């Protein structure tokens, strides 16, 4: 039999040699030796930086909008509280005016009743 099966160690060594050869081939064609690859890498880097800058700008705009919305909500809340205080003050003024009006009407009725009583007394004398 002239056929010899390679053993495990031989197969492992052949695989390691193949990996080393592939790595060397890759390094030979890498960006350091290939100006087109270096240019592509630089282009990718520029695009990535531009993308990051746009994302940062969007994030800043979103934060500014959130601050603006919070300020608007605060102003709306303050306006609502002021309207509530104004409404409560108006209710108090209305109650006070009603009490004054009722007291005045009651005094007028009493004066009219007293005048009738006095007139009756004057007639009977």
* Helical residues, percent: over 70%
How is the main sheet built?
none
Can you tell me the residue ranges where pLDDT is under 50 for at least 5 consecutive residues? none
Oligomer: single chain
What percent of residues are in strands? under 5%
Give the helices and strands as they follow along the chain: HH
Shape: rod-shaped
- Would you report the number of β strands? 0
The end-to-end span amounts to 164 Å
Query: What is the mean pLDDT?
Result: 91
Question: How would the blueprint of this fold be written?
Answer:
Elements lengths: L7 H21 L6 H90 L1
Q: Could you characterize the architecture of this molecule?
A:
This protein is an all-alpha fold and 125 residues long. The chain has one domain. Helices cover 89% and strands 0% of the residues. The chain contains two helices and no strands. The chain has helices spanning 8-28, 35-124.
Name the features.
125 residues, mainly alpha
Describe this structure in a few short sentences.
This protein is 89% helix and 0% strand. The protein has 125 residues and is mainly alpha-helical.
């Amino acid at each position: 039999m002239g056929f010899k099966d390679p053993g495990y160690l031989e197969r492992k060594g052949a695989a390691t040699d193949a990996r080393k050869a592939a790595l060397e081939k890759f390094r030979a064609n890498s960006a350091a030796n290939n100006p087109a690859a270096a240019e592509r890498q630089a282009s990718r880097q520029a695009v990535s930086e531009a993308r990051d800058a746009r994302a940062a700008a969007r994030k800043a705009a979103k934060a500014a909008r959130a601050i603006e919305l919070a300020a608007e909500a605060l102003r709306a809340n303050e306006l609502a509280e002021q309207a509530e205080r104004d409404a409560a003050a108006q209710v108090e003024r209305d109650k006070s005016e009603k009490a004054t009006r009722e007291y005045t009407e009651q005094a007028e009725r009493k004066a009219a009743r007293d005048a009738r009583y006095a007139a009756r007394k004057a007639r009977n004398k």
